[in-house]
Amino acid sequence: MSTISIEKFIEDIPKTELHLHIEGTFEPELMFKIAKRNHKQIKYATVDELKSAYSFNNLQEFLDIYYAGANVLIEEEDFYELTWAYLTKVHSQNVVHVEIFFDPQTHTDRGISFDTVIKGIYRALEDGKEKLGITYKLIMSFLRHLDEASAFNTLEQALPYKEWISGVGLDSSEVGNPPSKFERVFAKARDEGFITVAHAGEEGPAEYIWEAINLLKVTRIDHGNRCLDDPELVKQLADTQIPLTLCPLSNLELNVIHDLRDYPLIEMLDKNLLVTLNSDDPAYFGGYMNENYLEVAKALQLSKRQITDLVKNSFKASWLSDQEKENKMTQIETYFENNL
Ligand code: ADE
Ligand code: ZN
């Protein structure tokens, strides 16, 4: 039996990521390269200048920069390269399964066709499966600051690609854009066979989490931090085991929390919530999966047992088949036993 450090334990354990915006993986170096190729201007002269703009007081300040960055993505090849860069990065971190968001309206609203976006992303995901062994699910996320008609229109455009898209989600500016705004769109999406998830309780109130569950019939809540304000809701989440996809470094960068030592992870685990760790927008928040695990592990002094259980939670919360989940549980438990 070997003794390995917590760092190495986190690096080597096979992981899955359930809350990741592909547009949020756009590293500055790649952004400049693609901008040049497409003859698009970036507001900042250098990579370093751009990086120094990555200081956010809240979600909206981040979103403004994130949407501006996405503006340079024009061709199918750009979406391929973006997705491929993410996959190779997380492959180096032993991520073996990903369930990732893309935001079509970020692109269709500026005249890029839905087909261009999805074909580039899909081709990279298929290559990732074949060449890197990373399995995947794709989730189409609606921008909640836009109206219902735009979401319906986006759903319509997605229907020819139903085989490529497993679920729909809801993201962007939360406060003032409650899940109820999209109740009818989500009903239609479920009728068409999509699984549903939604960002809720990141900046918005616990009430939005209730709405996501009761009106949008979500199978997972993205973030969900604010559930802790409502004991009834915590009980409901514990009873139903609806998973929460937490994003620690994102929460820190967007001032949802102020210090990782106060991260409510242990409190959530003690309350029997099915919590998972994810990276959200790693190019903007200073870390991919391993960094998220490691920073939390250090701040909260997590044990190898706790880290293993968090990784198992993620596979449990994934959309893999029961058989695939069973296999992962065994594999991860074996990893734990061999690396105490
Ligand atoms: N879009 C990309 N990242 C997001 C986040 N953390 N919350 C809401 N919308 C987002
Ligand atoms: Zn997110």
Describe the structure.
α9 links the parallel β4 and β5. The chain is built from 17 helices and eight strands. An eight-stranded parallel β-sheet has the order 1-2-3-4-5-6-7-8. α1 runs antiparallel to α15, α5 runs parallel beside α7 and α16 runs antiparallel to α17. It has a single domain, classed as Alpha-Beta Barrel (TIM Barrel), CATH 3.20.20. It has 340 residues and is α/β, with parallel strands linked by helices. The model has no long low-confidence stretch (mean pLDDT 98). The site of adenine has 11 residues, from α4.
- The CATH architecture term is Alpha-Beta Barrel
CATH superfamily caption: Metal-dependent hydrolases
Low-confidence stretches: none
User: Which class best fits the helix and strand makeup?
Assistant: alpha/beta
Q: Which sequence of strands runs across the widest sheet? A: 1-2-3-4-5-6-7-8
The shape is: globular
Which keywords apply here?
single chain; 340 residues; alpha/beta; TIM Barrel; 8-stranded parallel β-sheet; 17 helices; globular; binds adenine; binds zinc ion
Outline the fold blueprint.
Elements lengths: L5 H7 L2 E3 L10 H10 L9 H6 L6 H12 L5 H16 L3 E8 L1 H5 L5 H19 L2 E9 L4 H11 L8 E5 L11 H9 L3 E6 L5 H9 L5 E4 L7 H10 L3 E3 L1 H6 L11 H6 L4 E3 L4 H4 L3 H12 L3 H14 L4 H17 L2
Parallel strand pairs: 1-2, 2-3, 3-4, 4-5, 5-6, 6-7, 7-8
The chain binds adenine and zinc ion.
The site of adenine has 11 residues, from helix 4.
